[in-house]
Structure formats: structure tokens, C-alpha cells
Design goal:
This protein has helices at residues 54-67, 85-93, 111-123, 131-147, 149-158, and strands at 27-34, 41-48, 72-76, 97-101. By secondary structure, the chain is of the alpha+beta class.
Length: 164
């Protein structure tokens, strides 16, 4: 389903977004990273064609451990995939990972939510014809966000976490 937002159109002409409804989807797991020395921000994302399970979470965490040196502090919600036995075992085996959970339902504390708000805004009023087109649009949006320190900083600043 297209994400429809307010847009401009000639007076008296309602904009029309044509689409064919399909149940295709892209699931994502992502993380904003902050370098402790330089305060440089990064964005790591994995996209999947199906629902994300504990196995994908472990794969994502392994990828983070390979790309980032030193200890990693994870802030995440209490979603079922984060509590999977496979994930717990992985966390127990990797002492570089330090886990802190958000309260039960607190998207306003999660800076990653702003990343997805920005990505959805980029995709608004578009109607990709298939999953491949959607993937291309999504990847272009995420590249734009990843390359911009100011956009990533705005995601951090828009969260209600006490950073200072």
C-alpha cells in the first residue's frame, strides 16, 4: 500500500496515486551507531523479504561486531525476537555487547524510529510496481540518510532519551 502524504496539486485537481495491492513486504532491522571518540554517527541496516526472527537478529549483531571495535551498547525494545533463546545465547557469548531495554512501549525514546519516519516520508506518494522497485526506493532513501550526519543527528535529537 502506498504511504500517502499531503502534496501539491493544481487547484481543483485531486492527486491520484495508482497502485495494485499486494501483500509483498520488506522487513528491516537497523541501528544508529555513535563513535565514542569522534561522535560520528553511522546507520546499519539489514533488509529481509520475510518476517525477522532471532536468527536474523543474531546475524545483524554479528555484523555489528565485525564492523565496530570495542564495546557496543545496545538500546532496544522488548520485542519477542529480542528475547528469543538464540539471541540470549548469542548475547551471553559476546561480552562486548551491553544490553539496555527500552520501557515496554516507548517509540519516542528510540532514535531508529525517526530513521524509518524519514524513509517513509521519502517513499510517500510513490507506488512501486513490485517488491524490487520498493527495495530500490528504500535503499536509495536509506543511503541518503546514512550519508548525512545532520539527518542522523536529527534522529538522535528527536528522541526523548536523556543524552546529556
Amino acid at each position: 500500500m502506498p504511504n500517502v502524504r499531503r502534496t501539491w496539486a493544481p487547484s481543483g485537481e485531486t492527486p491520484i496515486v495508482r497502485h495494485s495491492y499486494q501483500r509483498d513486504r520488506i522487513s528491516a532491522i537497523s541501528s544508529i551507531t555513535i563513535s565514542p571518540r569522534r561522535h560520528r554517527l553511522g546507520l546499519y541496516v539489514h533488509l529481509y523479504p520475510d518476517n525477522i526472527t532471532g536468527q536474523e537478529v543474531v546475524f545483524f549483531l554479528r555484523d555489528l561486531l565485525q564492523h565496530i571495535r570495542g564495546d557496543l551498547v545496545l538500546l532496544w525494545d522488548g520485542g519477542p525476537i529480542h528475547r528469543a533463546a538464540l539471541v540470549k545465547t548469542f548475547l551471553d557469548q559476546h561480552r562486548r555487547l551491553h544490553l539496555y531495554r527500552f520501557p515496554s512501549y516507548a517509540p519516542e525514546l528510540n532514535p531508529d524510529e525517526s530513521v524509518w519516519t524519514k524513509a517513509k516520508c521519502d517513499l510517500s506518494n510513490s507506488a512501486p510496481k513490485d517488491i524490487r522497485s520498493l527495495d530500490m526506493l528504500l535503499c536509495a532513501s536509506l543511503r541518503r540518510i546514512r550519508r548525512s550526519q545532520s539527518l542522523l543527528r536529527s534522529c538522535i535529537d528527536s528522541s526523548e532519551l536523556p543524552w546529556r
